[in-house]
Amino acid sequence: MNVSLIGSGNVATVLGRLIKQTGHSIDAIISRNPVSGNSLAEELGAVWLPSASAELNSELYIIAVSDTAVAAVADELTGCNALVLHTSGAVSKEVLKPAGDRYGVLYPLQSLRKELKTVPVIPFLIDGSSNSATQTISHFAKTLSGFVQQAGDAERLKMHLSAVIVSNFTNHLYALAHRYCQAEGLDFNLLHPLIKEVAGRLALNSAENLQTGPAIRGDGQTIEKHLQLLGEYPSLQSVYQLFSESITGFYQSPV
Ligand SMILES: NC(=O)c1ccc[n+]([C@@H]2O[C@H](COP(=O)([O-])OP(=O)(O)OC[C@H]3O[C@@H](n4cnc5c(N)ncnc54)[C@H](OP(=O)(O)O)[C@@H]3O)[C@@H](O)[C@H]2O)c1
Question: Is the pTM of this model over 0.70?
Fold first, then answer.
């Protein structure tokens, strides 16, 4: 397909690379940012434009801008006569209605950053304004990934919430532990094999069956020692307490 990308941030960059690698052609990077816009356009062999142009004639426009800007950008595409998609987990597809009859969502269920050297496996949740739009989006998404599922606004939002928990929250826990290690003169890198081992186990069993640590063992004395050590780190102390209580409650009253 002939594709134009709107935005030049993390998703536009990684999706742009994937789209190009899979044999589609990229007409333009439409971006308010001339520096990242030009740089991405150059990398992908496309032109940079500060705003959408009627002369582009792309078959597909992918809006990859901040959630709060998607609706305003869609307004600028009024009457473009092409398929228009956004990439957000949390924005309704209906905000794209002003862009025309054929619109939808191509939500990459992955953490994407432009510094990635290779494009990771990306499951896509897709949705369209009609059966025919959904079919076209599904066909396009299947050229990008072996993992494509249809999900409406409500289901996609719930999946986005789950993604925030498994990705953003765990990363924040790493950041908290890293800062604690630094403050205490400890080497956080020694924890890397543990982090990889625990994440890798999920391929073999469910997280519920894999819990270890003092809270599930009911090891109250160890928990008390840890909480005392965290006396000078009140926010980390409350996170520790919250997680320990959550683990205890989870196994006392399984749903
Ligand atoms: N990154 C991920 O892991 C990920 C995964 C799945 C879905 N998503 C979704 O993908 C979309 C893009 O995310 P991202 O991570 O690529 O964000 P990002 O790296 O922060 O890039 C955002 C892009 O939007 C542009 N932008 C912001 N406000 C704008 C406005 N008012 N008008 C025009 N352009 C505007 C920015 O331009 P400037 O450079 O000028 O600020 C930048 O090009 C979001 O809907 C996000 O929820 C992200």
Answer: yes
Q: Which CATH architecture has domain 2-151?
A: 3-Layer(aba) Sandwich (3.40)
The finding on whether 88 has its CB within 6 A of some atom of ligand 1 is: yes
Give CA separation, 249 vs 137, 197, 212, in Å. 43, 25, 14
Residue 168, classified by CB atoms within 10 Å of its CB into exposed (0-12), middle (13-18) or buried (19+), is exposed
Nearest-atom number in ligand 1 for the CA of 67 is: 45
- What is the topology classification, in CATH, of domain 157-252? N-(1-d-carboxylethyl)-l-norvaline Dehydrogenase; domain 2 (1.10.1040)
136 lines ligand 1 (CB under 6 A): no
Cβ of 13 closer than 6 Å to ligand 1, yes or no, is no
Q: Which residue lies with its CA nearest to atom 26 of ligand 1?
A: 65
Q: Where are the domains of the chain?
A: 2-151, 157-252
Minimum CA distance residue for ligand 1 atom 24: 65
Domains 2-151 and 157-252 share a fold: no
| CA of residue 184 to ligand 1 center, whole Å | 36
Q: pLDDT tens string for the chain (255 positions)?
A: 999 999 999 999 999 999 999 999 999 999 999 999 999 999 999 999 998 876 778 999 999 999 999 999 999 998 888 999 999 999 999 999 999 999 999 999 999 999 998 999 999 999 999 999 999 999 999 999 999 999 999 999 999 999 999 999 999 999 999 999 999 999 999 999 999 999 999 999 999 999 999 999 999 999 999 999 999 999 999 999 999 999 999 999 766
